[in-house]
Amino acid sequence: MDQHTGAGRREERQKAAASCSRPIAWGETSGHSAPVSRRQAEGMPHKRYYDTYLPFLLEACNDVDGYVRQASVYGIGVCAEFGGSVFCPLIGVALISLNNVIKRADALNSDNIMAYDNAVSSLGKICHFHRSNINAAQVCEISSSCSAHVF
């Protein structure tokens, strides 16, 4: 991949994230059930299915199996990075789901550590790609629990 293509993709993702209408409060679900319109999904075929599979990813964050949680939080991170404005209405719910995985009492057990690591990574992707659409105080609350596990 040449340098121009990578820069173009990064710029496209940042523009898409900036196109969200307003910051989403933590836990807010407005627009969660609204399907992606065909017009919104033009030129981005993978995004037309977000409203179909994202609810499953968010629900799977509470699964008893650490491997299922790991896969679901990884998927949330991918959606945060590449979803642009289609992901914006789900930021609040995604933050709650990631918070639940990060704050589990057994988060650092060998069966759960990959889910924890991927949840922290996905939180970072939301902060990076949707920084203008999140409440910093709420993200700081989640990230402070991450640093509490490290030290």
TrEMBL record:
**Transport listed as a keyword:** yes
Locations of Basic and acidic residues compositional bias? Answer: 1-15
Which residues does the annotated region (Disordered) include?
1-40
- Pfam families, from UniProt? HEAT
Localization, per the record, is:
Cytoplasm
Q: Enumerate the InterPro entries for this protein.
A: ARM-like, ARM-type_fold, HEAT, Importin_beta
Q: Which domain of life is it from?
A: Eukaryota
Q: Which UniProt keywords apply?
A: Cytoplasm, Protein transport, Repeat, Transport
Could you identify this protein by its name? Uncharacterized protein
Q: Which organism is it from?
A: Platanthera guangdongensis
Tell me the lineage of the source organism: Eukaryota, Viridiplantae, Streptophyta, Embryophyta, Tracheophyta
